[in-house]
Amino acid sequence: MHFDYRSLLFYCSQLLSCSRIGPKLGACCVLWFVLFCAEPDSAKVGQLLPQPPTITHQSPKDYIIDPRENIVIHCEAKGNPHPSFSWTRNGTHFDVEKDHKVITRSNSGTLVIDISEEKAEAYEGVYQCMARNEHGTAVSNNIVIRQSKSPLWSKERNEPITVQVGVSLILHCRPPAGLPPPIIFWMDNNFQRLPQNSRVSQALNGDLYFSNVLAEDTRNDYICYARFPHTQTIQQKQPITVNVLNDRPAGERKPSFMYPSGDSSTVSVLRGETLELECFADGLPTPEISWTKANGDLPNDRFSFHNFQKTLKITEVMEADGGDYHCLARNRLGNAQHIITVVVKAAPFWISAPRNLVLAPKEMGMLICHVGGNPKPTITWLVNGVPIENSHKDPSRKIEDNTIILSDVQTGSSAVYQCNASNEFGYLLANAFVNVLAEPPRVLTPPNYVYQVISNRQAMLDCASFGSPIPKITWFKDGQTAIVNGDSYILHENGTLQINVAQPLNSGKYTCVATNSLGNRENHVYLEVKEPTRILKQPEYKKVQRSSKAVFECKVKHDPTLIPTMTWLKDNGELPDDERFVVDSDSLTINDVTQEDEGTYTCIMNTTLDQDSASATLTVVERPDPPRDLELTDQKERSVQLTWTPGDEHNSPVQSFLIQYEDSLHEQDVWNNMTEVPGTSTTAHLDLSPYVYYSFRVLALNDVGLSEASIPSNQYRTNPASPDENPSDVEGTGTEPDNMVISWNEMTGLQSNGPGLQYKVSWRQKDTDEDWMSIIVANVSEYVVTGTPTFVPYEVTVQAINDYGSGPKPEVVLGYSGEDRPTMAPESVKVLVQNSTVAEVHWEPIPPSTVKGKMLGYKVSYWKEKSLQKEDSKPEKPQELTFSGNETEGRLPDLQPYSQYSINVRAFNGKGDGPPSTNQKFETPEGVPGPPTFLRITNPNLESFTVEWGPPVDDNGRITGYILKYQPINNTEELKEMTLLANETSVILENLKYSTRYKFYLNAMTIKGSGPIVTTAITIMDEALIRQPAACMSPRPWPTIHYVNFSLEEDHAILNWEYTGDENNVYVEYMLDNSKEAWKREAVNGSRTYQLKSLKAGMTYRVRVVAKDHGDATVHSTEELLIAVPAMTSRQVDIATQGWFIGLMCAIALLILVLLIVCFIKRNKGGKYPVKEKEEAHQDPEIQPMKEDDGTFGEYSDTEDHKPLKGSRTPSNGTVKKDDSDDSLVDYGEGGDGQFNEDGSFIGQYSGKKEKDTAEGNESSEAPSPVNAMNSFV
């Protein structure tokens, strides 16, 4: 079995914690580590070290055997050399070789005694085993062998027992003494256990106690049984007959004790055993038993009551359990008490057993035998199984009571010491060896072991060592100064280096050096400190609806050098094996969620060093189940109580219940909402209307939605009655000047309260003495009153009537008859002009009698008739402004300056507009003009250029002139200003600075001021050109490019154009079509033809030719050309017509012919083919040639050279590569495959393709083709 090294080393390091046992005993611990805890290579060290014997397994001291089986007495021991074994029996040597029935197991001291033909009693006795080698002798305990016994019950005659009802009774069992003691129980003739209770119960010795007998206790089959566990036999006592008489029943009495007798008794018990105290009381009624301890409480967790409180049981008895225990028996007539004094004795027990010692020469050590017991045990020492006083004298040994002190030990003084502690209750025997060794240091921790630990955790670097004397351990990091105890490091006495809080800077190489007087040994280990695993985003609580999807996210950060494993659990178990559960690298998705998916989901990220986990709960919600069990109670004429039972909420609490009703009398199968109650209610008081056939149903609402409706309740009918209400929304409005329409909302069947619903409509003119006019109508929602005056107020009522009476007194509503249009136009219309764009209008209101309805306001219409500047202007479409109520003035915005307007005003009401007033005219004054329509520079040359502009579209008056301003850009010079006449639209500017960029500003003027400014800019030509001779001073043309065309070649485009201007400032710019990148530029350098290279096949480019000035500003640009580069070049070369190709083919043909000749020459000479040599070199079983006779593989021999190879082809050197030439023989040879094996050879090397399809295995009679001959040439 292989154990994890670190777990094993941790356990064994506890053995090596020598600080617990003192420095002189540390070597013993190290030896135990070597023998039991080291890795296999290190364990070999322990196998080479001498060791005295150690008993590892032995039979128990008291060994009860089954006479039906062989006797096996165990004695196992270890040591180096392996110990031999001997036995004593009853204190004398037991020669096992002389008894053929006794066998000793191989490499063991265990005895197997065959008693199949011998009585077991012959081998009873006291046995002791001794294991010895040259370094000492270890002895076992005294093993007492006894045969188990199950004797028969003694012959006896049981007389019937006759007692009166109510008296106490004891049925004695008195079982035979067995080995071990039997288990007692009482049964009847039918092998049924006799019932026991607080009145009848069994004592520990098997007797059956009756506190008082009853008539039903009469029976003739009280049988006591004894079961002997070793032999699995059951012995039966003769049945006992009990007759219970009732002629003189015993009266009631207070308790008294049947057992134990008297007021007190004493019980002795050994420490560590189980104490059982019992009390049986006589009394009528049956007494109740209770227990207390004098001067203390019963021991917690170790006491219990049995047998109906009659037995007190205390396990693992301690000295403190001694004392007086009170047994109290009580009934209603009184009580009785018995005191049991418990005396605790103790067989010898270990406080500190002697430990093995490994000492170096000249060292000292102690063997301590510390035991307890009551009475105090006697301690005796033996050495190698001989009483120490009878052994040879050793001056280095001194005995002081329970301690042996060894000093200045010498090589060869190894021995096994025995400590025997005994008193009257037993004994203890312990072996402890003293092994004197002189060994140089050995480091047992594997070399170059890599420890990995998570940052901020504890790191333990082991340096398990062995040596005698005990080596001293020193640690170094990265070959630097020795590590000492401090805040960061702790050096344990067993050699382990502890780093309390490991940090990345602690990573590195550590060296431990073990040193003693005989030498030193070092070992290297490595520490890697890793980042901790952390869940950055934990899964969150999810509440999802059934059949939807739930996604739990679990994003994790971990050390990149550790391999993570993500595991998902559901309720701390595995996820269901269901394809609905999809686990990704950082999430868990549950599709089509069901109710069974509810639970807690945990994501666990494991690495080899640590883990982190997080959990979240999934709750599946659904619409609630419909309520059920609807019931109508407290039924009255106008109300009823509705109760129901809620359905399942499905994890989402019900917020409310919606109660609906159906009126099957008026609207069958139509359900109306009636009321809503909180989700905690299960009842509702419902107010009802007369003359309705009600059915009710309930719906439950939670966060998910409404449940299905419940099953409807039983129908509940209410009696008819007169209406409780009148129609609502009663109005009186006129639709014509001579009528009034009285309207209302029709009442429903539920509101009618009975059959024969009608409406009593009444009206009269307000503020008059007229009587009410009335009419009764049915099945309508309005009535038209005709012949009314125009727009006068009326009082209106509508009352509900049915066959059972009238509704309540109706409310009076104010209505009006119909309106007519106003009959008069406003008068005194005046316009006050505020400025060139705003005017105010005023008017007189019309008399109320002419309104003919509800006055809503006035409408002002105005429009521009003409411009006062332009002769041919036309009237514009009128604009309209509305002023509500009785306003008599308004503001007219956004007027055009220097224009003539017309205006009129009219009143309007709900019926429409009245007549307009007479049109009034008014004029607006002049305003500032609009911007000039354009500003541009024309006719540029070396001496001058022209500035042109267009008049404003909106002159807004008479133009009085223009102001032109200009100045150099990025210059501090003041603006130069020119005032121009109104009829001017251009000006010539001269004497400007050359190579300077100017900006121009222009605006128009009227008498009201200047209008908005327009701007432009231009650069003046280089003044150096004007210094040329007069013959060259002709006006220089502005740069222009025209007649641009292009043609496409294989990998470039050729552009051609015509150009006038500076030759050195012309560029070709291009970019990919639909690209957002900047234009790429290439200089032309005076040419009118340019090759544009680096164009990609299959792409479309935008291309233009531009001219730039010295400031890199564009002064001219052609229109963009779209150049589509084809995916393949337009011209293909026919390879067959190329001279180089024809020459290559001729060379190849000549070479093939030469190779063919050489091949035939070598075949005729015989010998092995090179392919044969290649087969011998590679020994590839898959390519060995096959013999012709039996199909097995063999070699090509000289005798087979005359046979042609079956279509096989052999390459010249086995390394032909297609990459060497695009025109290889594979491309032009006959039938060549050109396929390669993994080693680069042709697949067809040994089984090439035949020129003609032939049956497999037939030989080819044709001569090899030139290609085959080529492939066979060496």
TrEMBL record:
Its main location: membrane. It is found in: Cell membrane. Residues 712-739, 867-894, 911-931, 1170-1274 are annotated as: Disordered. InterPro entries: FN3_dom, FN3_sf, Ig-like_dom, Ig-like_dom_sf, Ig-like_fold, Ig/MHC_CS, Ig_I-set, Ig_sub. GO terms for molecular function: cell-cell adhesion mediator activity. It comes from the Eukaryota. Residues 626-721, 726-820, 825-927, 931-1024 form the Fibronectin type-III domain. One of its GO terms (cellular component) is axon. Residues 712-721, 1257-1274 have a biased composition (Polar residues). Residues 867-879, 1170-1190 have a biased composition (Basic and acidic residues). It comes from Pygocentrus nattereri (Red-bellied piranha). Keywords: Cell adhesion, Cell membrane, Disulfide bond, Glycoprotein, Immunoglobulin domain, Membrane, Repeat, Signal, Transmembrane, Transmembrane helix. The keyword Transmembrane applies. The lineage of its organism: Eukaryota, Metazoa, Chordata, Craniata, Vertebrata. It is a single-pass type I membrane protein. One of its GO terms (biological process) is axon guidance. PROSITE patterns: FN3, IG_LIKE, IG_MHC. PANTHER family: NEURONAL CELL ADHESION MOLECULE, PROTEIN SIDEKICK. CDD domains: FN3. This is Neuronal cell adhesion molecule a. Belongs to the immunoglobulin superfamily. L1/neurofascin/NgCAM family. Residues 53-140, 151-241, 255-343, 348-435, 441-528, 532-619 form the Ig-like domain. The chain crosses the membrane at residues 1140-1161.
